[in-house]
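Support request, please re-run this one:
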Amino acid sequence: MTADLMHKNIRLTSHLGGRLIVYSARGHLAEDLIVRDPIENGLKLVISNVNMRLRASENELRVNSPTAFAVLSEGRHEREHVFYAGRKRWDVALTLDRELVIEELGKDPDELLQRQTQQTLILRSTPADDAMQAMAMQLLSAPQGRMGNMVRLGTGLNLAAMVLGQLARQSTSAPSGLNRSDLQRVAEACEVMCDNLAAAPDLASLAKLTGTNPGKLSRDFKAVTGHTPNAWLQEERLGHAWHLLSTRSKSVAEVAHDVGYSPAYFATLFRRRFNVSPSDLAR
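Re-run finished. Output below.
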């Protein structure tokens, strides 16, 4: 995520003999960017407000609001990482040595993220709360030089502990019986809704398409994404609308229609979500 068209104010600092690497950047992406560099072995935590989609192995993550996610890889994995244009954005990424996590938290990343024996890649996400975002801003605004590096070291470790702790609690509290088939059904439901934003199937239809019942699909969907299917769909629609409006390729009414809303209702939802009206963004 270091392309010039994507970011400015990029910083990369190494701490504790390379056991913690802190990347931070903010700026504006002028056009959609696709990254296909493989995911390398190790643990990385990312906290960002990017509008993106990440696919790797059998994992998929879609983000369009402040989110923290962990990538734990055994070996290298192919990926397709799409970053969508049109938003002022910030990113913080922490690359951590496995032994450092064990020494400081007393648990292996495998245990914290509930990695199963057969899994060689785990992708876990959680909404970035106000505390996580505040620490990310500290990393982004830390001064240059040794004093700033000390701030980045302390804040980076604190933020890593907070994100790993939240993801560990989330994994532990996930409903029992969630297996590979359940995860695949959730991913399939996400893909169906994304392919039909203007007229996405309702929960009953999604359950029928994915071979389960509405109650189970709703529970599994919430466990995997942190949102109900309806809430997730609304986020996807509004995120796509932001992208369309920021490229100035369509009118507000056309964008509202493309994402399945009447213009008036769309304007209300959009302003509530982004604190800006769609017409102001389009201008």
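Residues 1-7 have pLDDT under 50 and may be disordered. The chain has eleven helices and ten strands.
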